[in-house]
């Protein structure tokens, strides 16, 4: 039995779960807006209230009769609690009033978590109609937390935020980056910590050869999201773009390889420059050529560079998928 199952079982022993109620919703407009927000833009939501045992009744039990209330049980010494808090607060802010979030320090107020059987923190319990309905324990990926909030709020189908992000992705796939940038910018004006919009807008700036703004967007990534795939991808892409910018003109690099096809360093440099020019298939083919002829060259540097390409391009990018197939064929032939 998982920790979450144990938590829900503990809740069920003392309370009866009640049907979900429909949440209140507020429309968000992601229309045309001005320039992108600065890294110092204010948070979208104010501080989350830390409640006492005496406040639990009105702030949670009574409030949950009209709005889903999440209680974040935490303690100052709990490292995972500090990791979870900003993610949870951000997702709740994005819900636009569908749910309310409060916090309870279990060291200062142990009675309520003791009655509920909370044995490990962080623990997040959703209250509806005056009773606990769902819960999870530990730090979860932001996508899982968002799904949890959507579930307990009673929302069905994708949220307006998710639809906006999907539209931005589609616009980028259709080679309409400026339109996608408008959507990302609109989201960031309301939610400055939205990771998908930060990295999406950073990638668009990078593709437009605006390294400075791309780096500004990378600096906006919240600390707890630095190790996310999208943040690492943007960081790797910025690094590659910087390397490509130091290598000179593509025509000169191509001429050097044509003059001496066995010059692995020239081919390696050309691959980086081609990646910077968004000619990804050609870039990976040049590195694969080095791997085929001299796997040990530069301490297997061609393979290491190819893996960095994959990280920068994204694991599901068509160029990444195709190059991975070719790499497997080379390594295991």
List keywords for this structure.
Glutaredoxin; single chain; elongated; 15 helices; alpha/beta; Serine Threonine Protein Phosphatase 5, Tetratricopeptide repeat; 3 domains; 333 residues
Summarize it.
By secondary structure, the protein is α/β, with parallel strands linked by helices.
Number of contiguous helices = 15
* Percentage of residues in strands: 5-15%
Whole-number total of structural domains = 3
Give unreliable regions as ranges: 8-45
Residues in helices, as a percent range: 55-70%
Q: What is CATH's topology name of the largest domain?
A: Glutaredoxin
Known CATH architecture of the largest domain: 3-Layer(aba) Sandwich
What is the succession of H and E elements? HEHEHEHEEHHHHHHHHHHH
Topology readout:
Layout: H1 3-14, E1 49-50, H2 53-62, E2 68-74, H3 79-94, E3 99-105, H4 111-116, E4 123-128, E5 131-137, H5 142-153, H6 160-173, H7 177-190, H8 195-207, H9 211-219, H10 229-245, H11 250-259, H12 264-276, H13 280-293, H14 301-313, H15 318-331
Parallel strand pairs: 1-3, 2-3
Antiparallel strand pairs: 2-4, 4-5
Helix pairs in contact: 3-5, 6-7, 7-8, 8-9, 8-10, 9-10, 10-12, 10-14, 11-12, 12-13, 13-14, 13-15
């Amino acid at each position: 039995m998982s920790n979450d199952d144990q938590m829900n079982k503990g809740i069920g022993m003392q309370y009866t779960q009640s049907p979900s109620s429909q949440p209140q919703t507020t429309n968000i407009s992601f229309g045309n807006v001005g320039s992108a927000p600065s890294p110092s833009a204010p948070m979208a939501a104010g501080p989350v209230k830390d409640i006492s045992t005496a406040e639990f009744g009105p702030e949670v039990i009574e409030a949950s009769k009209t709005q889903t209330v999440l209680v974040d049980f935490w303690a100052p010494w709990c490292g995972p609690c500090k990791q979870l808090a900003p993610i949870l607060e951000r997702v709740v802010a994005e819900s636009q009033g569908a749910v309310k979030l409060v916090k309870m320090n279990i060291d200062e107020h142990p009675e309520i978590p003791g009655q509920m059987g909370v044995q490990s923190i962080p623990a997040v319990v959703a209250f509806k109609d005056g009773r606990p309905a769902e819960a999870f324990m530990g730090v979860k990926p932001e996508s899982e937390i968002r799904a949890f909030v959507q579930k307990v709020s009673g929302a069905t189908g994708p949220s307006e935020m998710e639809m906006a992000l999907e539209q931005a992705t589609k616009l980028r796939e259709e080679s309409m980056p400026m339109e996608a940038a408008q959507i990302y910018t609109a989201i960031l004006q309301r939610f400055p910590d939205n990771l998908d919009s930060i990295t999406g807008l950073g990638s668009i700036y990078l593709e437009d050869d605006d390294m400075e703004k791309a780096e500004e967007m990378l600096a906006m990534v919240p600390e707890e999201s630095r190790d996310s795939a999208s943040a690492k991808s943007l960081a790797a892409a910025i690094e590659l773009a910087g390397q490509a910018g130091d290598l000179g003109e593509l025509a000169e690099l191509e001429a050097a390889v044509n003059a001496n096809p066995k010059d692995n360093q020239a081919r390696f440099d050309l691959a980086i420059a081609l990646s910077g020019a968004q000619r990804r298939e050609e870039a990976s083919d040049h590195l694969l050529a080095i791997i085929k002829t001299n796997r040990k060259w530069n301490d297997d540097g061609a393979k290491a560079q190819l893996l960095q390409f994959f990280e920068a391009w994204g694991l599901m990018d068509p160029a990444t998928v195709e190059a991975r197939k070719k790499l497997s064929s080379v390594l295991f032939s």
